[in-house]
Amino acid sequence: MVGFIRCVIFFALIGASGFLLGRVLPKGIFHGDRFPFMCFKWERQGAVYNLLGVKKWKEKVPDMSRILPKVMPSKRLPRSFTAGQVELMVQETCVAEMTHTLLAVLGFGCVFLWKGFWGWAASVVYMLCNIPDIIIQRYNRPKLMRILQRAREKESVHEKCDHLELQHGTGA
């Protein structure tokens, strides 16, 4: 029983630490188009996750943005959005993926707190509980990257039009 309690406390501590780390890290260091967050060829722009039925179950997985809405940005784009807002969402998917990957790996520290089979079992279950969150981030990111590209192109066209208008006057 002591080993179980130690593992529960350990999981709570690394979970809280991972959450805080994800909030304090500068988002600018995360890039959805760079390793390890970029979409790999085998993922087929996220289509491989359709085989797992992610679209059907992803809303059932606990989401910190619904649990702590004042601390975590919403996972939904507003009707009218900027490239900057989409870029922040891409960065948040990277942060969430990194956090859950770290938790899945660090969770194996439980084997030192609860010796034997049950420590290993708890660690494996904890890892398996983090995998759906990693999959969801990798499923969502390619779509967000396409939206980001279109938003950047749209903003670029508007900037060029504004520049031309300023250059030539409004003609009034």
Per-chain topology:
Blueprint: H1 2-24, H2 54-57, H3 64-67, H4 83-106, H5 110-113, H6 117-168
Please give a structural write-up.
- The chain has one domain (2-168).
- By secondary structure, the protein is mainly alpha-helical.
- The chain has helices at 2-24, 54-57, 64-67, 83-106, 110-113, 117-168.
- The longest helix is centred in the last third of the chain and has 52 residues, at 117-168.
- Helix 1 packs parallel to helix 6 (117-168).
The helix/strand class is mainly alpha
Largest sheet: none
In quaternary terms, these chains amount to single chain
Evaluate the radius of gyration: 21 Å
C-alpha end-to-end distance? 82 Å
Which key features would you list for this structure?
elongated, 172 residues, mainly alpha
